[in-house]
């Protein structure tokens, strides 16, 4: 007896699940590679939800992992607005935010859920593909790229989506990533977002200044490493640090503690340790790190611009004085 199809094995716990995105099962899509390099003779049956099933119908690719990537890219595109919610908000901010009017209240109530659903679908990994217990070889996810909890099919895809959702010209973000490296996506996004503008000339100037900055950082890195390791790190309890608000910006005691413990008391020293700062606070979230950094910059700048204030009024003046 020969069957007309190869159905992939479905583990018991996945028996009503879309292999692509984890949503409820609708139908099995019969996948034939195109071009068919391996001379596969029968379609491979892949359990799908209705949306992924319909996506698959329009895709021509030579392997199952490419099919999966194309489906994921379409989900990313279709749910870009939902995924963006997680870029623009944290769950807590959304809960605390007071929207007025029925429509906006509705947004608040459903927004985080929409984000969670979209995120779960694009991140879903399926299950290992086998037929009658024999693993199907060559299904790779080695090129996938994860940033801020969201999985992309590859670096190229991540750059495209992130450029779009942050309103950055894609070629600009590509150039910055090339300079700073793929593991520094957060840094690259921050750099692009704080650029003066996106005209051709402005981008060129920003890229030049980034090159200069990276060269300088590389030169400083060895020096900074030495100074931090040679000064025994100073420990300052959080309770000794006063929170303050400057120019309507809250300066977090956590950020102040981080700076004091490392002997960072000027904007210049902070700039040299920017990466270390973000590496430390991004474990919480990108938003937290960004907010803390902004506050700390304002604080140190104010101390420099107004030495009188720094010496006599700054509530943490004793801590800065007793270095
Ligand atoms: Zn699906």
Note down, in words, how this protein is organized.
The protein contains 15 helices and 9 strands. By secondary structure, it is mainly alpha-helical. Among the domains are: about 60 residues, no CATH class; about 60 residues; about 80 residues, no CATH class. A hairpin with a 2-residue loop joins strand 4 and strand 5. About 25% of the residues are buried. The structure holds zinc ion. The site of zinc ion has 8 residues, from helix 1.
Task: Give the SSE map.
Elements: E1 6-7, E2 27-31, E3 44-48, H1 50-57, H2 64-78, H3 80-88, H4 91-96, H5 102-123, E4 130-131, E5 134-135, E6 145-147, E7 150-152, H6 155-166, H7 170-180, H8 185-193, H9 200-230, E8 244-246, E9 249-251, H10 253-261, H11 267-272, H12 274-281, H13 286-305, H14 307-312, H15 317-321
Parallel strand pairs: 1-3
Antiparallel strand pairs: 2-3, 4-5, 6-7, 8-9
Helix pairs in contact: 3-5, 7-8, 7-9, 10-13, 12-13
The chain binds zinc ion.
- Total number of strands: 9
**Structure class:** mainly alpha
Distance between the termini: 83 Å
How are strands sequenced across the largest beta sheet?
Answer: 1-3-2
User: Nearest-angstrom radius of gyration?
Assistant: 25 Å
**Helical percentage:** 40-55%
How many H/I helical runs?
15
What shape does the CA trace take? elongated
Uncertain ranges: none
Q: What is the H-and-E element order?
A: EEEHHHHHEEEEHHHHEEHHHHHH
The largest sheet, given as strand count, sense and whether it forms a barrel, is:
3 strands, mixed
């Amino acid at each position: 007896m020969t069957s007309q199809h190869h159905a992939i094995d479905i583990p018991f716990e996945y028996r009503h699940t879309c292999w692509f995105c984890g949503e409820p099962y609708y139908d099995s899509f019969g996948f034939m590679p195109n071009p068919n390099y391996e001379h596969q003779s029968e379609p491979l049956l892949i359990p799908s939800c209705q949306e992924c099933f319909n996506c698959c119908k329009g895709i021509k690719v030579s392997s199952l992992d490419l099919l999966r990537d194309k489906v994921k890219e379409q989900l990313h595109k279709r749910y870009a607005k939902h995924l963006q919610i997680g870029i623009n908000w944290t769950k807590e901010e959304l809960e605390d935010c007071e929207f007025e009017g029925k429509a906006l209240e509705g947004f608040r109530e459903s927004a985080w859920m929409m984000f969670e659903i979209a995120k779960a679908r694009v991140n879903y990994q399926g299950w290992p593909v086998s037929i009658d217990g024999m693993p199907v070889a060559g299904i790779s996810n080695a090129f996938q790229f994860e940033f801020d909890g969201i999985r992309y099919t590859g670096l190229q895809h991540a750059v495209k989506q992130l450029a779009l959702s942050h309103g950055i010209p894609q070629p600009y973000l590509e150039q910055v990533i090339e300079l700073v490296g793929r593991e520094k996506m957060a840094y690259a996004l921050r750099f692009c977002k704080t650029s003066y503008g996106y005209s051709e000339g402005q981008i060129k100037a920003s890229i030049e200044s980034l090159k200069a900055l990276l060269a300088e950082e590389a030169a400083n890195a060895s020096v900074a490493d030495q100074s931090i390791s040679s000064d025994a790190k100073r420990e300052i309890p959080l309770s000794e640090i006063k929170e303050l608000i400057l120019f309507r910006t809250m300066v977090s005691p956590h950020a102040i503690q981080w700076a004091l413990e490392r002997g960072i008391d000027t904007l210049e020293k902070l700039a040299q340790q920017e990466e270390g700062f973000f590496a430390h606070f991004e474990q919480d979230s990108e938003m937290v790190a960004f907010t803390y950094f902004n506050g700390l910059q304002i604080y140190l700048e104010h101390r420099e611009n107004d030495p009188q204030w720094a010496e006599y009024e700054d509530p943490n003046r004793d801590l800065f004085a007793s270095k």
